[in-house]
């Protein structure tokens, strides 16, 4: 594809996309942070009505723009307009700014559920250029169009409904490999910074299915296995090469059964599109300074110099919710061999009642230390975390 350089416009308009140097890791920031990345999750400060700052998940897979739970929405209004009880609600505020730039909308969508508040461009009407400089933690939004030097440009296709843009899909040809096994791919993925993995596949082509079956991977069961006969979930780590840039040991996965992205948007794509296979997420994108160009429908990537560590692997290979209910487990792991099964209940951990831990403490327990004494409703196990 034809990548042209516009150095003058680039230096004047998008200089925030070029990392400055220092002795520690080759880059330095201005001291102003418009975004943060922790454990493969990106947050941005959003100012409502010029005074209330809310730290929101920046999730390009959020298709309604600005999304709040009702508990947060109530900070900004007395009532929420709903078409019928239980439906998605809407409220309008005076202003919304993100990284000191006008967001482009004054509308917030609200749902009566407990979930992280999120924001994304409103694709139907936004035609601006969103520039994410991860080296400096800066976000800038512009109306003017450019392609910085030394970048890779990939087309974005939007699923269209009612003549309006709805979902951004990006086509990034890449080679994935593990050891001596490698495979070249050329697919469409939902561009989803809310996915804390390299990519998640919901609709694997046969060649990709066969490739993953032939490499080292974890087979996982969760509670949805009881509902969907074709439910299949697995995790694997691969090296990803795009053009000449290689990213090592990226956690990716299959999540098959509950949802087919390909089927859901099959009628909304123009003919001749690449196969739609799933979502591509932040564990891949965090290695780039990237520009989401909504004006010309393209994703512009430039390898960055920053290091954003991922959360350590769950060494016990099972997960449970706040009530202790085991909701995921790796088949044939030490936990599975020891007799832990879905729907078992954790009662205590290291002699402390499970429900006495905060949600953060419960979550961190799976990643902290090497030995935990687990007490379930019908068994007690002292387990070493798997290496």
**What would you say the CATH architecture of one domain is?**
Beta Barrel
CATH class of one domain: Mainly Beta
Topology, number of strands:
30
Terminus-to-terminus distance: 43 Å
| Structural class label | mainly beta
Strand portion: 35-45%
Rg estimate, integer Å: 22 Å
* Unreliable spans: 1-30
The biggest beta sheet reads: 16 strands, mixed
CATH level 3 topology of one domain: Cathepsin D, subunit A, domain 1
- Helix tally? 7
User: Fraction of residues in helices?
Assistant: under 10%
State the shape.
globular
Average pLDDT level:
87
Strands, helices and their partners?
Elements: H1 7-13, E1 36-38, E2 41-48, E3 52-58, E4 66-69, H2 70-73, E5 81-82, E6 89-92, E7 96-98, E8 101-102, E9 107-111, E10 118-119, E11 129-133, E12 138-142, E13 152-161, E14 164-171, E15 174-178, E16 181-185, E17 188-191, E18 199-201, H3 206-213, E19 218-222, E20 232-242, E21 245-256, H4 261-264, E22 276-280, H5 282-285, E23 288-293, E24 298-303, E25 318-320, E26 326-330, H6 334-337, E27 346-349, E28 352-353, H7 359-365, E29 371-376, E30 380-384
Describe the structure.
Helix content is 10%, strand content 40%. With 387 residues, it is mainly beta. Among the domains are: 152-303, Cathepsin D, subunit A, domain 1 (Beta Barrel), CATH 2.40.70; 318-384, PDZ domain (Pdz3 Domain, Roll), CATH 2.30.42. The strands form three sheets. It has a 16-stranded mixed β-sheet that branches. β29 and β30 (380-384) form a beta hairpin. It starts with 6 loop residues before the first helix and ends with a strand. 32% of the residues are buried. Mean pLDDT is 87; it is low at 1-30.
